[in-house]
């Protein structure tokens, strides 16, 4: 045995022994999670038991990142523990998660990022269908896009909260990376047709203008459909889509990260029908309807200012009413169980036409 082989053998023996310990500990953890499930069923009843606990998961992940001393990066260890909790939760109860499809899109990536790969994620054609599936109990949770850093708010998603009685149980932030994909191996040569959905065009327009001004742009309904069209059309056709779509359709990535904003990201909401406990770092979302009058928004925001509560987002939506009313979606820091948040909610309740608490949930960790 050479010196190198001897040294490698020693290290690999160490790795084998560590793997045995990790393996044993993983199964110990899984058994603990099974007992947690039994306790939940015993006290909440097997039909009503709530297995998924976003606040607890956020605390576990935050703690993992805080205590991490490397050499593994904080987000890498958190990603590993994300998957560990995902398999443990699947042992307690396999989770069915509806997402705004089609398969292979960024919302699916957001769903996997949030729930890990042991959750069973099912695509639906519209936000309405996702909400309906969760409301009817067909899926435990749903994932829908709410805001993109370059395109702004997805107002259709916001409006669904008026029609459905569901709560927000969490949020996910996903960095969006678009790539140029093609079936042949011609790199960036001879590109004549580009398949992409409208929102991808909005996010990559400058890059496409400067690299392929003369190529025809054909709008399709999704990045996955763009990939299918690029394959079908063959020579000269490319799709603009994600790495996941490239893997799904076995396409070559010929140019990476073509987004005009290098920090292009989308925020997604997790919808469900449970109240989420405090995690220590939470957000609350409300929908308020007020009578139209000058200074109405100012008066509304005054309450937050008075109690030193930071807003993280506000959107105006037309209220569906014959009266002259306006509706505002407001996100702010803090949990509804918190006393000073309760104060603000009480004040708002007495001064608004309607106040709907959409939910308090942990600030995105990963
Ligand atoms: O603490 C719980 O309630 C658990 O069910 C355990 C556990 C975990 O694996 O740590 C699993 C699923 C929950 O979403 C949160 C945490």
Can you walk through the features of this model?
- The chain has 366 residues and is an alpha/beta fold.
- It folds into four domains: 15-92, Chorismate Mutase Domain, subunit A (Up-down Bundle), CATH 1.20.59.10; 95-176 and 267-274, Periplasmic binding protein-like II (D-Maltodextrin-Binding Protein, domain 2), CATH 3.40.190; 184-263, Periplasmic binding protein-like II (D-Maltodextrin-Binding Protein, domain 2); 276-362, Alpha-Beta Plaits, CATH 3.30.70.
- It has eleven helices and 15 strands.
- A hairpin with a 3-residue loop joins strand 3 and strand 4.
- Helix 1 crosses helix 3 and helix 2 runs antiparallel to helix 3.
- It binds prephenic acid.
- Residues 33, 36, 51-53, 56-57, 60, 85, 88-89, 92 line the site of prephenic acid (PRE).
List keywords for this structure.
single chain; 15 strands; alpha/beta; D-Maltodextrin-Binding Protein, domain 2; 4 domains; binds prephenic acid; isomerase; Chorismate Mutase Domain, subunit A; chorismate mutase activity; globular; EC 5.4.99.5; amino-acid biosynthesis
């Amino acid at each position: 045995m050479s010196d190198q082989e001897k040294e490698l053998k020693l290290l690999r023996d160490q790795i084998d022994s560590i793997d045995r310990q990790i393996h044993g500990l993983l199964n110990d953890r899984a058994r603990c999670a099974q007992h947690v499930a039994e306790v939940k069923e015993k006290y909440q009843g097997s039909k009503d038991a709530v297995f998924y606990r976003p606040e607890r998961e956020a605390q576990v992940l935050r703690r993992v990142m805080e205590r991490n001393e490397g050499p593994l990066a904080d987000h890498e260890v958190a990603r590993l523990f994300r998957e560990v909790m995902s398999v443990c939760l699947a042992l307690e109860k396999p989770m069915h998660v509806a997402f705004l499809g089609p398969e292979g899109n960024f919302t699916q990536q957001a769903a996997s990022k949030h729930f890990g790969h042991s959750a069973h994620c099912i695509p639906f054609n519209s936000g309405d269908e996702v909400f309906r599936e969760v409301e009817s109990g067909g899926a435990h949770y749903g994932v829908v896009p709410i805001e993109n850093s370059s395109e702004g708010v997805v107002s259709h998603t916001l409006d669904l909260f008026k029609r459905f009685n569901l709560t927000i149980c969490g949020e996910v932030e996903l960095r969006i990376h678009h790539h140029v994909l093609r079936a042949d191996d011609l790199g960036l040569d001879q590109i004549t047709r580009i398949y992409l959905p409208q929102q991808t065009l909005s996010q990559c327009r400058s890059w496409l203008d400067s690299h392929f001004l003369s190529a025809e742009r054909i709008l399709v309904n999704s990045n996955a459909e763009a990939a299918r069209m690029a394959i079908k059309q063959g020579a000269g056709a490319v799709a603009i889509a994600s790495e996941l779509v490239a893997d799904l359709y076995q396409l070559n990535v010929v140019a990476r990260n073509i987004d005009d904003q290098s920090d292009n990201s989308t925020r997604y909401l997790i919808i469900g029908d449970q109240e989420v406990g405090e995690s220590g770092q939470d957000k609350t979302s409300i929908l308020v309807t007020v009578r139209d009058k000058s200074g109405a928004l100012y008066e509304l925001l005054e309450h937050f200012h008075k109690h030193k509560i930071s807003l993280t987002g506000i959107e105006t939506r037309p209220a569906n009413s014959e009266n002259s009313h306006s509706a505002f979606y407001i996100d702010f820091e803090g949990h509804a169980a918190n006393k000073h948040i309760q104060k603000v909610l009480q004040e708002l309740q007495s001064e608004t036409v309607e106040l709907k608490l959409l939910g308090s949930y942990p600030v995105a960790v990963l």
